[in-house]
Amino acid sequence: KSAERYSDLGRVLEKLGRPEEAISAQSSAVELAPENPYYWHNQAYIYASLGQYGEAEKALTKALELNPQEIAHKANLGNAQYKLGKYEEAENTFTQVVETDPRYAEVHYQLALTREKLEKPNEAKASLQQALEKADPEQDKELIEKIRQKMSEHSE
Hints:
By secondary structure, the chain is mostly helical. 79% of the residues lie in helices and 0% in strands. It contains nine helices and no strands. It has helices at 3-15, 19-32, 37-49, 53-66, 71-83, 87-100, 105-117, 121-134, 141-155.
């Protein structure tokens, strides 16, 4: 079978709620085509869904080595670092994302949460403001609600 078929199978299995099998299929895709960053990224996504953030971080690091320009790899790496409690690294990663492409409201929000963990309230508040400015009122309603909730916490 081709790597692409294994990757497709991995995504289907993950959607069916069979993450262990999905990891196996996605790992086969990575073994067959280790030069494809998207197979590593897909593997990381499944690891993250299992709460295996260390494995997700490794796979995303590999994806970034292969394709350093891909914003999604970097944003998801920041999420894995955050989940692992590596807040300084996560802040650095999220900052790189918003400096490269400031459009992503979710990344500004994650940066704000990370800065809260680092006890940087002013920077966190600024990131929340950026997140609110970048959020699409139609598509990001849940995110806007989360941002407004956090902003009210900062104003208390």
